[in-house]
Amino acid sequence: MKRTDWQNAFGEVDEDFHLRLRSTLNELEETDMKNRKNLAVIMLAAALIVALLAGAGIAASQLGVFHMLDSADPIVPLEGAQELVGTNLGAVENDLVKLTVEEAVFDGQGALVQCRLSPRDTERYAMFNSFMQDAPEEEYITETVPAEVAEGSQEIETDDGVYTIINEAEHSLLFNGVPIEFPASWDAAQAANIPVYEENGAIYYGDYREYRVLGRRDGRQTIDYWISVYTGDDRIELDAYDAEGQADGSVLVWCSGFADEKLDAEEIEVHVIGEISVDGVDTMLDEIAFTLPKTDAERRCSLQPVGEGKGERFEILSGSIIFTKVRAYMALDYRYEQAEKGEEMGIDFRLYDGDGNRITTGAGNCTEVDGIWHWNMEMQSFAEIPETIWLEAKVIGEDKTLGRVECRLIEE
Length: 412
What we know:
The chain is mostly beta strands. The chain is 9% helix and 50% strand. Strand 12 (196-199) and strand 13 form a beta hairpin.
């Protein structure tokens, strides 16, 4: 299994199908980059916290829909979370495949969905999309080939300077505006630390190669696919996906997302759309739509800094945490002064309990308006809300912290 990887190539299917997928993903990525700075925040859970939760909670690995929370450092759902899960929420099929929504849950702020896409003829076909799935060598035939540069002109910025590649009727390469010769091979590009090379009349990238899946070792033909899941409330973006192939040729697909704030809604509409491609023929499946109720009450705490709430070049202003049986959601307002050099990605926060044990957190996002940063993230929930927690500011991409601030949790 693997989380969605923007760099992986698609499988060997019709190029038009892939172009539509790439176009959709690019639009989503561009929109997201314009509005937020995504944080990939996966933190270690302390052994004490895990032990306490294990006594009153559930192993996420035993609950299919909670798969997206079950990383190396899992967010563990609390006891009773399994009772919130809806099952067998809809199915569609055609001559080739069947798409089923097996499980889903809505806790008032976030949603998790598990789908299964199965070939009708499991002896002949197996589902596979290299963007969504791993391709184990014992199951798949793979190769790594040179990645060709697209036609036209583009720039590649490196630590040394800017390379301009012109891939038209006549090829040319400029470094900081000065023409230079293309390296003649991958090895030559690597040796010269130049990001492209020219071989047999074509230009290829010199710093990475294209990974391709050629087929399955058991002879079954692969059916490429894509599944989109969205809600009727635009505030919940189900934008985190994972998939895992099964022995019978089916694939389990999970998605997760949450709103930046608690929704005043007792239910949400969920829509699931599937598309497949086989032998160069693309087919859209009928949409599955269902209503997902919120079946449990959440608890809300305000977060108040102790003392000045300041560290090195940052200040905690205010915040809140919503606790549900599935997970918790923190919203945090703070000020941050970037260093004169470095810290291009800004900061995120690690959480600790009153005894200094790390609290597990997951995905999050950050926006800035008029000098105030607003940070949202998912985190471990608690059956008993702690009196205080500590927030440690960490520079993203660097082994550098800017201090810790203690905050009280006041239940509302």
